[in-house]
Amino acid sequence: MNDVQTAQARGAEPPILEVRDLEMRFPGPKQGFFRRSHSEIHAVNGVSFSIRPGEVLGLVGESGCGKSTLGRCIVGSHRASAGQVLYRDAQGGVTDVVSARGATLRRLQRDVRVIFQDPFSSLNPRMTVMQIVGDPLVATGTASGSELEDRVGDMLVKVGLSREHMRRYPHAFSGGERQRLNIARALIMNPRLVIADEAVSALDVSVRAQILNLLRELQEDFNLTYLFISHDLSVVESLCDRVAVMYLGRIAELADTEDLYAAPQHPYTEALLSAVPRPDPRLRGTGRRVALPDDFPDPANPPSGCFFHTRCSYATEQCTIERPALVPGKDGALVSCHRASELNLMGVAIDGDADGRPVPLQAG
Amino acid sequence: MNSESKPLLQIENLKTYYYADEGVTRSVDGVTLSVPAGKTVCVVGESGCGKSVTARSILGLVDTPGKIVDGSIRWRSGAKCGEQPAASAPKKRDREVGGDEGEYIDLVKLGPRSERMRQIRGNEISMIFQEPMASLSPMYTIGQHLVEAMRLHRKISEKDAWARGVEMLRSVGIPRPEQRMNNYSFQMSGGMCQRAMIAIALACDPALLIADEPTTALDVTTQARIIELLADVQERTGMAMLFITHDLGVVAEIADEVAVMYLGTVVEQGAVYDIFHRPQHPYTKALLASVPTMGGGPRQALRTIRGQVPHPLNRPQGCPFHPRCDSMIEGICDVSVPQETLLERSRVSCFLYDEDGESNEATRVAREVVGK
Amino acid sequence: MSIKPDLDRVPATSEAEATSTRQGRVDTEAATDKKSIQTASQGKLMWRAFRRNKLAVAGGVVVIAIYLVALFADFLAPAAPGTFNSDYLYAPPQRVHVVSTDSAGERTVGLHVLGYVSEMDPDTYAITYEPNPDDVIEMGFFVEGDPYRFLGLFDSSTHLFGPVDAQDKVFLLGADSSGRDVLSRLIHGARISMTVGLLGVAFAFVLGVLLGGISGYFGGKVDTVIQRLVELFMSIPTLPLWLGLAAALPRDMTPLTRYFAITVILAIVAWTDLARVTRGRFLSLRQEEFVTAAHLDGNRLPRVLFRHMLPSFSSHLIASLTLSIPGMILAETSLSFLGVGLQAPIVSWGVLLQDAQNIRAIATAPWLMAPGAAVVIAVLALNFVGDGLRDAADPYSQ
Questions:
Q1: Distance separating alpha carbons of residues B305 and B237, to the nearest angstrom
Q2: Looking at the whole model, is its pTM more than 0.80?
Q3: pLDDT (average), residues B322-350
Q4: Is the residue at A308 inside a domain?
Q5: How far is C270 from chain A (nearest CA, A)?
Q6: Contact A90, A272 (CB under 8 A)
Q7: Which of B124, B164, C118, C158 has its CA 20 to 30 A from that of B28?
Q8: Domain count, chain A
Q9: Which phi and psi (to 5°) does residue A267 adopt?
């Protein structure tokens, strides 16, 4: 795969996770007298990329783009319809999550863990913190009794809570604290890859900052690799090394964070970036807002050729016929756009002017 | 804050409390702010700060066990925005209750069930909410919603109301409005629903639109278009807007004035530029520092506010923010509640500034000690 | 759709002080107030919520009282349910007096009732009863009366209240067609009527939860099959079904066997409700993120079902069970009233109501409908309790 070759060309280690042509199909809405679904929704429609060990890879997109489904397929919660998810463990052995079953799958799920989005529904309201955070240890028979208590207690301290919280129930905690519990549960088995599925989206702004900082510290402490799924572009920018942008089940662009935000290569990325409101009133009126028509295509009936062509201001006839492949673009990025090499798109990087005041980088 | 003309809406020391078995929750605890005609005031804050309850108090939408216990909300009676001359005469009511045109009436005194309040809702002050799909009844079409909104307040035939409804939908950017009139809410996307909501809210040319997190549930690209739409409408009609949000980016895009709330009080308010670039209150400063900046590059270290928002039943003594404040002055901030001070360009509720807007000796020394 | 932060939800915790150690880390000290709420389990929270519902609490008190009555029926009833006396056919209820004067002007003070003077009308053969001020029957507490075996443990003949002289008869709620004391029979009837419901519900529970759980958890074809089965059972008209099944029971069954057979018959229809409720809960629980998390933690399916999912809806289950009992009570009452349920000599409220089946009885001896009132009170009380439990069962309601 291109990505692997690029990575190896850069002299990096082999990737910890490699996704190849992943597809996830769901039956469409049931219609007709016999309530059969006549259509299929391709939530994930041919996705390939890899994650380098130790990096933070961001996965962004709007609702319906398939990023959450992709996360679930990677961790084995959904069984993908086609493709492979190759996980490389610490010894170098490679397993395919998609075809793994039973004990193999369970072993994989100790190494690849998820931090869930909703702090309220992801913790069982009938179980104490001790039971929730310790559940992976109990379920796999790894620890019990006082050793269990010690390990849970240590983990709680590491995420910024205290040992006394073990006896409490989730309803006693605020949203931010519950996310810490979520993180504790995810990390207690010492995983290598953590998928954060909108882990901070449901939190207040100030709490979000705390959790993001915590995630960064924990990455260093535990030597983790993150796949950070989010719809919030500014959060993704502040945390991630590389970012992948998804649209309707496909990857539009995958690039280093700085490059993506300063000089996007896919028109959707450009539109997405320009739509994010910036917390600086001086930037009002600057920056070309790329207007996208409201109509999100029906996922059960996506457009032909390039999925984005119906809303793209740069679309040509080729775009309506031929699906663009994810190929290398400039600066080591991957783009799926026929016109990537010729377009000059505008990013949102901020430069300082003479007085140190921010000024958006001009395109080109 | 320095508008020469009298404001459209003036909230003075509003207090809305919720009474429950566990105790009294002081959701809004002394809020003073005003909305000048034709401007956008954004109320920003995190969860529990009382911004939504404030908005609902204005239109008397506070349900038991909550009630407004103190303060006044003065509204310029009869105010409407002037996009076009009224295509129809306002409805004659059985009896006119409340103030004459141009005079101020106190919405708190009106009471939520009064006839006058019903005349104001949807007619002089409109409101849109966070979940567009949930705000529209699935039993009625968009057209029926629009027609009802108009016929409640105007003497207008159904045919004329329908035609105006189509125009309203067109003006909010909904393509093929004639067909959309017959759609139900579940047949439309979130963005489209929100546009329809805006059309319904604006059907009677209200002078003030209260928007309670209208874009929080929408995708970022849809959000951008809705914000544009609102700005556009405002420019066309001269309508004022009270916009509630937690998203500082949105605030920066649309606000003329900003009020920052924390635990039921307004800690700072002023022109948007001053709030963002010359914040005075420690909470405002901390909030701005904890938001990642787009274009600021990867791996930004975000400054955090230590601790978390306390449960409203456990309000700290004195200044509500003091347990989390780096500039807290012992003996003052944890004892008394700061009053609002008028500074050169904004108002702050903080002991770092005394009544004259000057920082006095004690606080200056304290600030040095704290290393401000 | 898009992610919407739950911003209107105020943090439930009440950490009094927070000090930061490293940037982004928070060390919290436990707040002393509210600690009880924080460590309170779901059950405790539910109890608190239930307590606030005055109607439910009142209903609970009544239900407990009725079950206590059923438990101590022998002791509480003034007479044994079977004792009859042809002198007192359809005798009206006797008023309890504290002071009365007899025809000779003598005053009696103390708890007592007045005996009857009966006359038979020669034309209609109707017997009329008048209170006889000269026949003073003293009442007392802890009196000796008909012997009984207390809960099968020991023999006793003490009754809570009754005539001081064991030869006298007292009819506080009148007598029935055989001269038996309605009040005593009512009290004994509680025993049968209230427990039939419990047993029936137990059977229905096992069947309903099992099938409903399987249906809701696995979905797909299994779900379809089981749901059609449920619908089949629900679409059969219940009364004819019961009548048919009850009538098919052999006549020579012992009363006890018949009792169990009736409970099984009742359960056959009641399980469908429970199955539906269970299925609904499992379906919604299946999608909860904590169930996904439980799977991803490495739990096998049985552990996910019993350790993670079942506790989550046990409160709903209790509420549903409580709400099923009134239906059982009404069913048994109806069947027995129609003559196909329990039979004499078993005493249940339904059996008692057989006496109230004709107009003559209702017109001239309305006290025979007292068991009907008892059924109404019991059913209402149980419904209030069940509603209260159901309202309190939602873990996220404030």
A1: 40
A2: no
A3: 82
A4: yes
A5: 28
A6: no
A7: B124
A8: 2
A9: -55, -30
